[in-house]
C-alpha cells in the first residue's frame, strides 16, 4: 500500500483524492458566489425568525394553560349543575308519586 511506498497510490486512494478535489472545487465555486454581507443578513433574519417563533410558542403555551384551567372549571360547574338537575328531578318524581 502507500504506507510502504509513498510513490505508489492505490486506485481507491486516487479515487478518494479525486472526489475530494471535485468537492473542494464545488465548495470553492459556491463560496465565490456568496457575499458575506448576504450571508450575515440571512443569519440575522433566521435569528429574528427564531426569536419570533419562540415568543409565539410561549404565547401558545400560555393560551393552552389558560384553556386547560377554563375547561377544568367548566367541567366542574357542569357536573355540579348535572347533580342539581338530577336532585330536582328526583324530588319532583317523589312528589308526583306520593301525591298520586
UniProtKB/TrEMBL annotation:
The KxDL domain covers: 30-88
One GO biological-process annotation of the entry reads: lysosome localization
Q: Which GO terms describe its cellular component?
A: BORC complex
What family, per the record? Belongs to the KXD1 family.
The name of this protein is KxDL domain-containing protein
**PANTHER family from the entry?**
KXDL MOTIF-CONTAINING PROTEIN 1
Amino acid at each position: 500500500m502507500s504506507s510502504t511506498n509513498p510513490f505508489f497510490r492505490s486506485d481507491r486512494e486516487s479515487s478518494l483524492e479525486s472526489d475530494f478535489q471535485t468537492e473542494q472545487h464545488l465548495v470553492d465555486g459556491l463560496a465565490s458566489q456568496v457575499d458575506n454581507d448576504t450571508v450575515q443578513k440571512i443569519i440575522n433574519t433566521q435569528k429574528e425568525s427564531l426569536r419570533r417563533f419562540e415568543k409565539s410558542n410561549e404565547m401558545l403555551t400560555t393560551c393552552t394553560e389558560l384553556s386547560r384551567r377554563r375547561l377544568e372549571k367548566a367541567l366542574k360547574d357542569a357536573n355540579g349543575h348535572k347533580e342539581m338537575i338530577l336532585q330536582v328531578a328526583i324530588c319532583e318524581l317523589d312528589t308526583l308519586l306520593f301525591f298520586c
